[in-house]
Amino acid sequence: MKPRIHPESRPVVFRDRAADIAFLTRSTAHSSKTIEWEDGGTYPLIDVEISSASHPFYTGTSRVLDTAGRVERFERRYGRTAAPRH
């Protein structure tokens, strides 16, 4: 690797607002907010709206979509398409 071209990586706390979970990891992101972590250290804090702790794909709480119901609702709203031309 070439020296002095990569951004500095340091410990940062990311807090998932939806799940109210925080985790300490390394990042190059900057933040003016700080938080005191479990180990007694103070780290930059970055709030995120969604992470693997709250995303339906990772939590397995996604709902099953009723595609047949969606088609029927579309047809009720907009009517059936015109008959095919011969």
UniProtKB/TrEMBL annotation:
* TM annotation in the entry: none
Q: Which domain of life is it from?
A: Bacteria
GO cellular component entries: ribosome
Subunit description: Part of the 50S ribosomal subunit.
Annotated keywords: Ribonucleoprotein, Ribosomal protein
InterPro entries the UniProt entry points to: Ribosomal_bL28/bL31-like_sf (IPR034704), Ribosomal_bL31 (IPR002150), Ribosomal_bL31_B (IPR027493), Ribosomal_bL31_sf (IPR042105)
Question: What family does this chain come from, according to its entry?
Answer: Belongs to the bacterial ribosomal protein bL31 family. Type B subfamily.
Q: Which gene encodes it?
A: rpmE2
Q: Which organism is it from?
A: Streptomyces mirabilis
Put simply, this protein is called Large ribosomal subunit protein bL31B
